[in-house]
Amino acid sequence: MPAHTEAATLVFPAVNAAALDYLKAARNRGERVVCAASVANDEVAAAAGELHRLPSIHDADFAVRFLALADAQSVVRVLCPVSTVYAFMTRFLAQRRPELQLIGESPVQQQIAAHRALMARAQRLLPLVERCADGAPSLSLREVAGVLRQASLIYGESNDEKLAAMMGIFARAQQGDVVEIGSLMGRSAVVLLYLAWRHRIGPLLTVDPWAAAECVQRDSPAALQSVTDEWDYEVLSEGFMLNLVPCCADDHAHLRLPSEAGFAVYAGGEPIRSPLGHPVAYSGTIAVIHIDGNHDYAAVKKDCDLWLTRLVPGGWLILDDYVWAHGDGPQRVGDALLRDQAGRIECAFCCGKALFVKLRH
Ligand SMILES: C[S@@+](CC[C@H](N)C(=O)[O-])C[C@H]1O[C@@H](n2cnc3c(N)ncnc32)[C@H](O)[C@@H]1O
Predict the structure, then answer these.
(1) What is the biggest distance separating any 2 CA atoms in the chain, rounded to whole angstroms?
(2) How much distance in Å is there from the Cα of 215 to the middle of ligand 1?
(3) Is the CB–ligand 1 distance for residue 156 below 6 Å?
(4) Residue 319, Ramachandran bin (φ over 0: left; ψ between -120 and 50: alpha; else beta)
């Protein structure tokens, strides 16, 4: 008699992040999961409640012990998140227990599929990057894919189209400082940092207070306002910093201040310390600015009123969420700018919901 009658999925060997991810997702959909491995793993044991020990697949008693566990636990499918064991398990199950389903692709095939999907995504975006570069030499397909991949590892609110347009416009940016107002965990910041380095534009300054009081969108519906209550702002701050660690950036500093106070520091003209403590010298003139902080009309207007005074001729403004479901602050500010500054504007377009504006030389 099986110890359990409810059908289960056996995760073997349950030794890595893929095993834990499956366990969590399966639990969320109410699927019973049994975890087994040939070596101890405290993390999986704690998450699963129990980690059954099986011999190595190379041991003589593996087959008997594996099949006994499968029978006792009413196992109907097997997930195998280790590539070498997956290959063994394909043959083993076909010979010994063909009714047990080996689910998912092998880890190697998953990597190949993920790589191909990423390259297809970059291929789709490359024409947009090139259109935004308007004939200037811009990123290769491999660079677009690499930047997308790094950005996608970071939680954030910048979509592919906006990031692709950013990649393109840097090809025709002037030299000067690159500034971002509103960084969250750094998705757009890592892209700006790469582009600033790649096109030798200038150092990056990011400004974000990571503070609940600043994040409330007073103009937006109440449902959106409560979203900001969910964040742990120390996690946001630490998450941003560690997401930028691999960029080894000595040409980036962050001001944990609201935009207005950040502008006062920037306008002071003193070097600002990088996360590693090195002084970063800014020219005081901005080549590219990404405004993605508080989206209330008054906040966006203040961001533009302050920071755009430093935008160089030929400089770029990226005004996020010009098209936005939760309010019209960025759109009202953007439209006023397009109307009032028309004589100073060389071109403007909307991409990935953001407004891109280039000043004349
Ligand atoms: C939409 S998120 C930024 C998304 C980010 N650029 C990305 O690509 O993932 C808005 C950010 O603006 C920040 N913020 C809110 N008020 C601000 C202010 N007054 N000055 C600067 N940043 C602000 C918030 O802390 C939040 O991290």
Answers:
(1) 83
(2) 7
(3) yes
(4) beta
Q: What angle do CA 266, 272, 274 make, to 5 degrees?
A: 135
Phi first, then psi: what are they for 221, rounded to 5°?
A: -60, 155
Structural domains in the chain plus CATH codes: 8-104 (3.40.50.20), 111-359 (3.40.50.150)
Q: Which amino acid is at 126?
A: L
SS3 content of the chain, % helix, strand, coil (to 5): 50, 20, 35
> Does 215 sit in the ligand 1 pocket, CB within 6 Å?
yes
Nearest one of 28, 27, 45 to 36, comparing CA atoms: 45
Tokens for 206, please give them.
């990011």
Nearest CA owner, ligand 1 atom 6? 183
Helix (H) or strand (E) holding 318: strand 311-319
CA atoms within 13 A on the CB side of 95: 6
Cα(200) to centroid of ligand 1, in Å?
A: 25
CA–CA separation, 169 and 131 (whole Å): 9
For the stretch 124-182, pLDDT in tens is: 999 999 999 999 999 999 999 999 999 999 999 999 999 999 999 999 999 999 999 99
Ligand 1 near 184 CB (within 6 A): yes
Ligand 1 atom nearest to 290, measured from its CA: 6
Statement: residue 103 has pLDDT above 90: yes
Point out the ligand 1 atom lying closest to the alpha carbon of residue 207.
21
Distance of CA 180 from the midpoint of ligand 1 (Å): 9
Q: Which residues contact 331 (CB under 8 A, 6 or more apart)?
A: 322, 323, 324
Q: Which helix (H) or strand (E) holds 166?
A: helix 160-169
CB 325 within 8 A of CB 296: no
Count of beta carbons in the 10 Å neighbourhood of residue 279? 11
Q: What is the pLDDT of residue 230?
A: 86
> Cis ω on the peptide bond leading into residue 221 (within 30° of 0)?
no
- pTM value is 0.92
Report how far ligand 1's centroid is from the alpha carbon of 259 (Å): 9
Rounded CA-CA distance 39/51 in Å is 9
CB 195 within 8 A of CB 167: yes
CA 300 to ligand 1 center in whole angstroms: 11
